[in-house]
Amino acid sequence: PRAIHLSDYLPYTHLVEEVALVFRLAPKATRVAATLRLAPNPARPGRHDLRLDGENLRLLSLRLNGAALECAPDDTGLTIPAAHLPDGPFTVETEVEIDPEGNTALEGLYMSRGMYCTQCEAEGFRKITFYPDRPDVMAPFRVRVEGDLPVLLSNGNPTGQGTGWAEWVDPWPKPAYLFALVAGDLVAHSAPFRTASGREVALNIWVRKGDEDRCAYAMDSLIRSMRWDEEVYGREYDLDVFNIVAVDDFNMGAMENKGLNIFNSKFVLASPETATDDDFARIEAIIAHEYFHNWTGNRITCRDWFQLCLKEGLTVFRDQQFSGDMRSHAVKRIEDVLLLRARQFREDGGPLAHPVRPDSYVEINNFYTATIYEKGAEVIGMLKRLVGDEGYAKALDLYFTRHDGQAATIEDWLTVFQDATGRDLTQFKRWYTEAGTPRVKVWEEWDGATYTLTFEQENPPTPGQPEKGAKVIPIALGLLNPNGDEVLPTTVLELTEGRQSFRFPAATRPVPSILRGFSAPVVLEREVSPEERAFLLAHDTDPFNKWEAGRALAKDLLARMVTDGAAPGPDWLDAIARVTFDETLDPAFRALALRLPGEDDMAATLHAGGVTPDPARIWTERRRMAEALAKRLGPQLPGLIEALAEPGPFTPDARAAGRRSLRIAALNLLTRIDGGRAAQAAYRAANNMTEEVGALVALLEAGAGQEELVAFEARWAKDRNVMDKWFALQIALAHPDRAVGVTEALTRHPDFDWKNPNRFRSVIGALSGNHAGFHHASGAGYRLVADWLLKLDPLNPQTAARMSTAFDTWPRYDADRQGMVQAELARMAATPGLSRDLGEMVGRMRG
Ligand code: HT7
Ligand code: ZN
C-alpha cells in the first residue's frame, strides 16, 4: 500500500455546500440516499473530475443534476469525469446499500447488540456513502433516519419525529468524520443546562434499559465540563441538544461527533458497586475531553490528518487542566507523567517513533498514538510556560476568533502564538516535526560565590530522522539551601543550544530542583547521591519533584538489585516510611510515593543504561523490594488502614478517592506479610468496586485470591464491564510462568467474546501488559499474542494493529528474545491478506 505524504496536500477540487442524507435502516441491507450540493472550489482553479471516496458500498443509483448517470465505482470510490460536470454549482445524488450487521471492523455504520451506531473518524464515512471523506471538506448536514426502533439520533438539532422516523439538522459546517447516527431501544438520563449567554440545552445520556442508574457521574462530569469551558476558555455550547450514547462494541474510548458523542460504555457507566475510583476519574476526563472537542476539533478542525495533534494535543491539554482543577494538580501531573513515560517515551524510543506531526502514513488509524495525544499535550504545556499564562490566553482567544469554522494547520496554530505574543517560534516548531525524546545532561559547579548549572541536550536519531537540531527546552528550576529552605523559587530557564550554562549567586552550595512540574518531555541525566534524593523527597516544595526524588531513589535501588544483587537499605525504606506516614501530605500523593516502578519502565531504564534487561529477574527483584517495604512499614500498616477507613457512604470525589488509594496501597503491602488475612477480610467487607478490586489485586499479587476470583465471577457474571476486570486482573497479575496458561484457559471461557474489543483487550492486552509473562523466555507469550492478532485482523484490523504495539520494545532484550519477536513479526508479515493497518505496524516494527 502507498504512503500518503504531507507535502502532497492540495485543497479538494470542489466545495460541498450542503449534504442531505436519508437512512432506511435494516440490519443486513441499509439504504443510504445522499444528495450533495457541490460547486467548483476557487482554491483549485481549472476543471477537475469529481472524485468521491467510497468503500464496500453497493451503488444502486447515481444522478447528476437530476439525470441518471452511468459510472462504475472502483474499490476506493467513484469518479465523475470533468466532461460531465457543469461549470457552476451542481447536485449529485447517490443511493447505496450497506450491511451494518456484517461490519465487524466497527468503522462506518455497524451494529452493537441490536443497536445501530457509527464511527467515522478517521475515514469511516466512506463506508456509509460516496463522499469526499477528508477533514477540510466542511458542510452543513440534514439527516432523515427511518427505522423500526424507538430512538433515532443524528448530529445537530432535532427538527421533527414520528413513529419510525426522525429528522435532524446540523447547521455548523463539519467534516464527514464528525457525522454520527444511532438507533436503538435506549433510555435517556437527562438534565437541563443553561449556557452563560442564556441558551437552554437539553443534555441526554442514552443507554440500554437497566443502565440508567449508572449515568449520574457522567452527567455531572458533563455539566462541570461545560461550565469550565465557559469560565476558563470562554467557550459556549452551540446547539439545543447534546447527546451522549453508550455503546458496548467500540474500538477506542469515545468519539466527539458534533452534538452526538458516542462512548465506549465503560467510559460512561459507573456506580460505586461497579466502578473503581480510577474508572470515575477516567469517565470525568473522557467526558470532558470529548466535550472540549466541540471547540478544539469541531468548530476548528484539522486541514488534513497530519494535523491530528492540532485537535488531539490541545484537547488532551485542556482535559488535563480540567482534571487538575477538579481534583489535585500535583497528583494529576504525576499521573500524567507516569502515563507519558510508560506509553510515549516507550514509543519515542523504539521503531514506532514518529513526530507529533508526522509527514507520512499508510493507515491514519495507526497514528492515534501517545505521541500525537500525550506528547502533543506536553508541547502545548511548554508553549504556555514559554509565553506565560496571559500570552497563552491571548493566543487562544485569537485562535478561536481567527480560525472558527476552518480546517487549520500547525502553522496556523504557531502563527497565532507569534501574532499574539510577538515570540518567534521557528525553533520551537521542531517539537512538532522531529521525533524522539531529548536527553538532557546536567553538571553543576559552585565556587563559593556563584553556582553554575550546565546543560547539554542530545536529540537521538529516530526512524527516518538521523539528525536533529537543538530544541527549545523550558527547564523550571528551584534552588534549596542545605536546611531545606527555598532560596530560588521556580524560575524557567530556556535551553536553546546544544550546551548552555546558567549562573546564580550563592553563598552556600544550593541543592537544585530541576525540571519542576516536569516542565519538558525529556530524560534528565544527572549524577545524584541517594542522600540528595532523600533530601529532595523530604524538602522539595515542588510536589512533582518531591515525588520524582522518591521515584528516582526507588529506580536506582531496583536497578542495583537487578544488576548487583543489592538489598533494599534504610536510605530508601526510611525515606518512603516518612512520606507514607506524613499526615501533612495528601493521601493520594502518599499512595503515589508508595507505588514501585513498573517492570517495563525498569526494563527501559536498564536498557538506556547499557544493561540488557532480564524480565524474570526484574519481576523477582521488584517483588523482593515490595516485601522489604512491607516488612519495614508492617507494624504501622494496620493502624494506617484503620485510620483511612471512610465511615459514610461512598463518594467518588478526589479526597475520598485519595484516602482509598493510600488505604489500598497499605493493604497491598500488608498482604505480603500477613498471609492474606487482612485482604480476605477487606474483600468480604468491601461495599464498592475500588475496595473489592484493591483487595483482589493484593491477593493475586501475593499468589492467592482463587476463592475471591470465584466469588467475583459468581457475583458479576452478567455485567460485561465488571467482568472485563475479572478477565484482565488474573492475567495481568499471574505468575510469569503461568501467565500464558491462564490466558489460554480464559480464551476458552464461554464469556470470552473475542470480537468485542473491550473483552479482547482485557485478555490479550492483559497478557502483553504482564511484562515477565509476555517476555517469557519460552517465547510462548509472543506466540499467543501474535496468534490472536492474526485471528482478529481480518475482522477488526484497527484494534489488531493498535494491540500489535506490544512487540515494539523488542530491541531492548537479549538475542533470543529479539529472534523470537522477529520471527513472530515475520510470520505476521507473511500472512496472506494481512490488513493495511497491521501490515504497516508490523513493517515499521521490523525496521
Ligand atoms: N477523536 C477520536 C479518535 C478516534 C476514534 C474514536 C473511536 C473509535 C475510533 C476512533 N478513531 C479515532 C477520539 C478522541 O480523541 O477524542
Ligand atoms: Zn480527542
TrEMBL record:
EC top class named in words: hydrolase
UniProt keyword annotation of Transcription present: no
Peptidase M1 membrane alanine aminopeptidase domain location: 217-431
Catalytic activity: Release of an N-terminal amino acid, Xaa-|-Yaa- from a peptide, amide or arylamide. Xaa is preferably Ala, but may be most amino acids including Pro (slow action). When a terminal hydrophobic residue is followed by a prolyl residue, the two may be released as an intact Xaa-Pro dipeptide
Residue runs in coiled coils: none
Keywords attached to this entry: Aminopeptidase, Hydrolase, Metal-binding, Metalloprotease, Protease, Zinc
Domain of life: Bacteria
Domain Peptidase M1 alanyl aminopeptidase C-terminal: 531-845
Gene3D superfamilies in alphabetical order: 2.60.40.1840, 3.30.2010.30, Neutral Protease Domain 2, Peptidase M1, alanyl aminopeptidase, C-terminal domain, tricorn interacting facor f3 domain
GO MF term set: alanyl aminopeptidase activity
Record domain Aminopeptidase N-like N-terminal: where: 94-178
This enzyme's EC code(s): 3.4.11.2
Cofactor(s) the record lists: Zn(2+)
Domain Peptidase M1 alanyl aminopeptidase Ig-like fold: 436-526
Family: Belongs to the peptidase M1 family.
Protein name: Aminopeptidase N
Organism: Fuscovulum ytuae
